[in-house]
Design a protein that fits this description.
Elements lengths: L15 H8 L6 H5 L5 E4 L3 E2 L10 E7 L4 E6 L2 E10 L2 E8 L4 H4 L5 E6 L1 E2 L6 E3 L2 E4 L10 E4 L8 H14 L9 H7 L4 H9 L4 H31 L12 H6 L6 H15 L5 E6 L5 H14 L3 E5 L3 H15 L6 E4 L5 H13 L4 E4 L13 E6 L7 H8 L6 E6 L5 H7 L4 E5 L9 E6 L4 H13 L3 E5 L14 H12 L5 E4 L5 H12 L5 E4 L12 E6 L7 H8 L9 E6 L5 H12 L3 H12 L24 H18 L5 H19 L3
Parallel strand pairs: 2-3, 6-9, 12-17, 12-18, 13-15, 13-16, 14-15, 16-17, 19-24, 20-22, 20-23, 21-22, 23-24
Antiparallel strand pairs: 1-11, 3-5, 3-7, 4-5, 5-6, 7-10, 8-9
Helix pairs in contact: 6-7, 7-21, 7-22, 9-10, 18-20
Length: 682
């Protein structure tokens, strides 16, 4: 027997070339291959007669070859093979393109099983390049429920099917991790049956049962991992904060906090008094005041003789926090320090020396905070700003620089509670559902291309009033048939043709980090009137002078992402606007975009987005910190998620991960899952 850890090259027919193709799908071992699950199925179990074939509807049928196949060379690169087949109900002409081997494989007078779709003006008259198998041959592509796999260039579905069948024949499937009691309670298939059935189901019903088992398993493992993280945290102790008076801090603020901010700070103070490490998420809409909640926690940390660190996703955002918070905290006797990769080597060395010696209280920085060369004297609080840009591994790396420090993460991506439980299941959650006084209401409009002249006129009007504008495009460069606005092309058009007298800047994700930072900083200083960008500006600096956001081809974005982009304006004292453009006339698409025009409530928008599109906006393929689920689909598996969360909670509370085969296998699987999650961030 082979082992799951053996390379796929031990399989017959998998040489260096095919191994590279599998590697493009992150398939290196037999376990990777067995866990490469189908994205769908085609039910080819039902045989029909030739007269029952329907145009453009693929079907299986049995027929006899009525003549010797003949191949004609049409031109260079094109050979056409034709043959006629028949059953008791009729005849059918088959045409194969560049498949000369059919001349030898289809023999006159023999019956075969074919699968394909008829086409043309006459039903049953012609079928192009069907797949076929001999009547007595084992079913590979016909007479079965055929799994359809995610593929890559050069790798066919048949090649994957055959490789998976070989792997299942020579090695055991991954170990069972779900307790029998859980499987019985929730009607879950055993692991061995599920892994075989997901790849070679006897029916569509069995395929669904296998899929449900594997979805449940993934959610169970993830939920169990979060439960273990909670349990490990509960077992740690940290000195309870004795000094929790915020009167001096509140007096220093140039504004009053909202009720939501006050509630969140109250929950944080209770955490800090408890004597166990805080692990809390502050979730709030764009502009809801999350940063000030975090600063209150940092203030108390310093007053209790410990250091605090705030990690921002970009250098320019870190610098913005440093400037504004230094102004607030320095008069209160709190020493604030900046540490980013963009500092000079000497500046970084000096900053790290101050941090290590305890000569600074509150460190604001980027990923430079988690490098080995950054050491803290006594780190008591870690704050991760814009949490969706970081992951479990990064925030854990920063937390590891202290003795069980408190952790506070902030997210401006409103997420329905069900999904928040998954993404942030190891955190306590508090929500800021109020906006501070003075935040501008943003008027949002949906228009078509016929409004282009009016859009350009409105951009000029805003600039003439002394304001700045964003123009967001869904693509960086030209994109062929997609016909999407490309930032590079559109920026050039606006600068040279539409606004030759204005300063138009360009920003996109393919630029170097330093270049992006420079462009954004220049825009913040008012050195450009219009910034044409991709979604790289979704998380950026506050530019109070920006009053207009134009989002091109808005139908290409999710509602939550559009809401995040819209939040870049309305940060100053002037009236602000957002214009969504689209060519798409689909009624559902128009209804979705109009929903954004009706509300600025991020949580309502998130719920609508979940209903209309599924949670893709919250959990992209490279969503930092979120394990890469191989089969689960959150848009339709929420009920299974809730069951798996409940099951893992009940089992861990009752059994833990005791010294049982299932417990050991579960621990190993948890480690693999979070290791894959860490890999998506690199």
């Amino acid at each position: 027997m082979a082992r799951l850890s053996d390379p796929v090259t031990i399989l017959k027919g998998v040489g260096p070339t095919k191994a590279k193709q599998f590697a493009a799908l992150n398939i290196f071992t037999l376990e990777d291959l067995i866990c490469h699950f189908p994205r769908g199925y085609e039910d080819r179990t039902r045989l029909v007669t030739i007269e029952k074939l329907e145009v453009d509807r693929p079907a299986c049928f049995k027929a006899m070859v009525m003549n010797t196949p003949r191949t004609a060379h049409i031109r260079k690169g094109l050979d056409v093979t034709k043959v006629q087949v028949a059953d008791h109900t009729g005849r059918l002409n088959l045409t194969f393109f560049n498949q000369k081997f059919t001349t030898d494989r289809l023999q006159y007078g023999k019956e075969y099983i074919f699968y394909g779709a008829v086409s043309g003006d006459f039903i049953g008259y012609n079928m192009a390049t069907p797949v076929f198998e001999e009547l007595n041959a084992p079913p590979v592509t016909t007479r079965r429920v055929l799994p359809i796999y995610p593929l890559t260039a050069g790798l066919s579905n048949v090649a994957v099917v055959k490789a998976v069948e070989q792997a299942l024949a020579i090695c055991d499937v991954p170990a069972e991790i779900l307790p029998q009691s859980v499987r019985q309670k929730y009607g879950i298939l055993p692991a061995q049956r599920a892994y075989y059935a997901i790849h070679a189901p006897s029916s569509m019903e069995e395929a669904e049962l296998a899929k449900r088992r594997l979805i449940f398993e993934e959610f169970f493992v993830f939920s169990a991992g979060l439960s273990l993280m909670r349990a490990a945290r509960a077992g740690k102790t940290t000195p309870a904060y004795k000094h929790t008076d915020l009167k001096e801090f509140y007096q220093a603020l140039p504004f009053s906090l909202t009720g939501a901010q006050s509630r969140a700070i109250g929950e944080i103070v209770a955490d800090l008094r408890r004597g166990t490490p805080m692990n809390r998420l502050v979730q709030g809409d764009v502009g809801s005041g999350k940063t000030m909640v975090a600063v209150a926690a940092a203030y108390l940390t310093v007053k209790n003789s410990k250091q605090a660190a705030l990690m921002a996703p970009t250098e320019i955002l870190a610098e913005q926090h440093y400037k504004s918070l230094s102004k607030l905290l320095t008069p209160l006797g709190i020493r604030v320090c900046l540490l980013t990769g963009g500092l000079t080597p000497k500046q970084k060395k000096d900053a790290r020396q101050l941090i290590a010696d305890g000569q600074t209280d509150f460190v604001i920085g980027t990923h430079a905070l988690v490098t080995d060369s950054t050491q803290f004297r006594d780190l008591g609080l870690v704050v991760a700003d814009e949490q969706h840009r970081f992951g479990v591994a990064q925030r854990s790396a920063l937390s590891a620089k202290g003795e069980a420090p408190h952790l506070l993460v902030m997210s401006a991506t409103p997420i329905p509670r069900t999904l928040a439980l998954l993404m942030y299941g190891d955190l306590e959650v508090c929500v800021l559902d109020e906006l501070p006084p003075g935040r501008q209401q943003i008027d949002t409009f949906l228009v078509g291309e016929s409004y282009r002249a009016r859009i350009n006129a409105f951009i000029r009007k805003q600039v003439d009033m002394g304001h700045q504008c964003y123009v967001v495009c869904p693509a960086v460069g030209e994109n062929g048939d997609l016909d999407l606005k490309a930032a590079t092309v559109w920026a050039e058009t606006l600068q040279q043709t539409v606004f030759p007298d204005l300063q138009v800047a360009l920003l996109h994700g393919q630029m170097k980090s330093t270049e992006k930072e420079q462009v954004m900083a220049a825009f913040a200083r008012g050195e450009a009137d219009v910034l044409v960008a991709t979604t790289v500006i979704e998380v950026g600096v506050d530019v109070p002078n920006a009053t207009l956001m134009v989002i091109e081809d808005a139908d290409r974005f999710g509602l939550s992402q559009l809401h995040q982009l819209r939040g870049r304006v309305g940060r100053g004292d002037s009236k602000s606007y957002c214009i969504l453009t689209t060519h798409n006339k689909n009624p559902e698409t128009v209804a979705r975009l109009k929903a954004l025009c009706k509300t600025t409530d991020g949580f309502r928008i998130a719920q609508e987005d979940l209903k209309l599109r599924g949670p893709g906006d919250f959990f992209g393929s490279r969503q930092s910190g979120l394990p890469v689920f191989r089969v689960a689909n959150l848009s339709c598996d929420l009920q299974t998620l809730q069951q798996a969360q409940q099951a893992s909670k009940e089992w861990i509370e009752a059994e833990g991960t005791a010294d049982t085969p299932e417990g050991a296998a579960l621990r190993a699987r948890i480690g693999q899952l979070f290791l894959r999650a860490q890999g998506t961030m690199n």
